[in-house]
């Protein structure tokens, strides 16, 4: 045996490869390939609706939430531990209707057993055999609190449970999504820190999704170990049949018009006036403080944009509008009106 056989292999830093492995997605932007992780949120934040939407998208290959593409589709195995099977079917049919699918054509398998305990060896073995038989791309367990009788706050108890799911993921090369509750009134915490129980849960995830509700607004935040995260993606639950989660897209027609700069507000006021305007009148028309108005008027007068006489301020009509250069910091030309020339 050579002396070097006892050494770890090393390489000069400057010789390391500059091309790393590309991120592979199960659902682009939402879930990386073969990732384990948490879909978390406070009660009544539509976690189960999102989990079902993810299940349909991976099983069918249709975009999740009609937005996030699915490069790799395949069978999905779901255990809904809280909702009745009839409610689960109704929700799945609603999501399929929105996506233009027939539920019968989607390879989504639902575990119908009354219970599944991840803290019991027999149930873990039974789950592994089921996964081996169906070979799903994704396993969804909803929610964690119904899957055990251990103390979620004890790292020594929750870590082996999560380790068993990680072993299942590696053994069968599938993704695992675990639905879990967040603490109540945890709005001031980072999403991952808001999860109930041990910090092991947050650290375990390769991809994590967090749903939050503030008043009537529902938002989604993504977190990935090996990809860029996104924050505050606006969602809503459709108010009419079929019921499904959907992204909120801003309407260009409803985009607010940028507020004119202080310079443009003064130009607009003087353009609309048929006489010189005093500083007091300009302050009221332009809705600005005396100090801001005085400094801006002085700057505009110094640039020759305006002039002042005993009656007040007026535009300097000797300067063609095309030659007016707004001072640095002014944004655009407000309502587009041109001073008279």
Quick overview:
The protein has helices at 47-60, 85-99, 121-134, 155-172, 200-204, 262-272, 279-286, 290-302, and strands spanning 25-27, 31-32, 36-41, 76-80, 108-110, 138-142, 175-181, 207-214, 217-224, 233-237, 245-247, 306-309, 312-315.
How are the SSEs ordered, and which strands pair?
Elements: E1 25-27, E2 31-32, E3 36-41, H1 47-60, E4 76-80, H2 85-99, E5 108-110, H3 121-134, E6 138-142, H4 155-172, E7 175-181, H5 200-204, E8 207-214, E9 217-224, E10 233-237, E11 245-247, H6 262-272, H7 279-286, H8 290-302, E12 306-309, E13 312-315
Parallel strand pairs: 3-7, 3-8, 4-5, 4-6, 6-7
Antiparallel strand pairs: 1-2, 8-9, 9-10, 10-11, 12-13
Kindly give the count of domains. 2
The CATH architecture category of the largest domain equals 3-Layer(aba) Sandwich
Question: What order do the SSEs take from the amino end to the carboxyl end, as H and E?
Answer: EEEHEHEHEHEHEEEEHHHEE
Strand order of the largest sheet: 5-4-6-7-3-8-9-10-11
**CA-CA gap between termini:** 94 Å
């Amino acid at each position: 045996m050579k002396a070097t056989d006892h050494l770890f292999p090393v390489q000069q830093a400057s010789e390391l490869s500059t091309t790393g492995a590309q991120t592979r997605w199960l659902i682009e932007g939402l879930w990386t390939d073969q990732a384990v992780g948490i879909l978390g949120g406070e009660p009544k934040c539509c976690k189960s609706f999102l989990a079902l939407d993810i299940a349909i998208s991976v099983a069918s290959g249709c975009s999740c939430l009609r937005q996030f593409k699915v490069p790799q589709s395949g069978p999905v195995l779901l255990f809904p531990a809280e909702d009745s099977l009839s409610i689960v079917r109704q929700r799945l049919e609603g999501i399929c209707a929105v996506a233009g699918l027939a539920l019968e054509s989607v390879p989504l398998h639902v575990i119908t057993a009354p219970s599944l305990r991840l803290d019991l060896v027999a149930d873990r073995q039974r789950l592994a055999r089921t996964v081996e038989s169906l070979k799903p791309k994704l396993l969804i367990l909803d929610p964690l609190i119904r899957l055990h009788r251990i103390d979620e706050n004890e790292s020594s108890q929750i870590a082996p449970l999560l380790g068993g799911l990680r072993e299942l993921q590696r053994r069968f090369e599938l993704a695992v999504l675990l639905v879990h509750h967040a603490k109540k009134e945890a709005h001031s915490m980072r999403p991952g820190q808001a999860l109930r129980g041990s910090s092991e849960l947050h650290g375990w995830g390769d991809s994590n999704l967090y749903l939050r509700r503030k008043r009537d607004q529902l938002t989604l935040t993504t977190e990935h170990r090996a990809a860029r995260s996104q924050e505050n993606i606006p969602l809503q639950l459709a108010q009419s049949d079929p019921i499904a989660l959907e992204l909120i897209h801003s309407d260009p027609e409803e985009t607010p018009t940028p507020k004119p700069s202080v310079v443009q507000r003064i130009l607009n006021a003087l353009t609309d006036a048929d006489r010189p305007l005093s500083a007091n009148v300009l302050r009221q028309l332009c809705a600005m403080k005396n100090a801001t108005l005085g400094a801006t008027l002085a700057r505009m007068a110094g640039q020759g944009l305006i002039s002042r006489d005993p009656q007040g301020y007026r535009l300097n009509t000797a300067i063609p509008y095309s030659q007016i250069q707004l001072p640095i910091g002014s944004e655009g030309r407000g309502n587009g009106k041109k001073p008279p020339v």
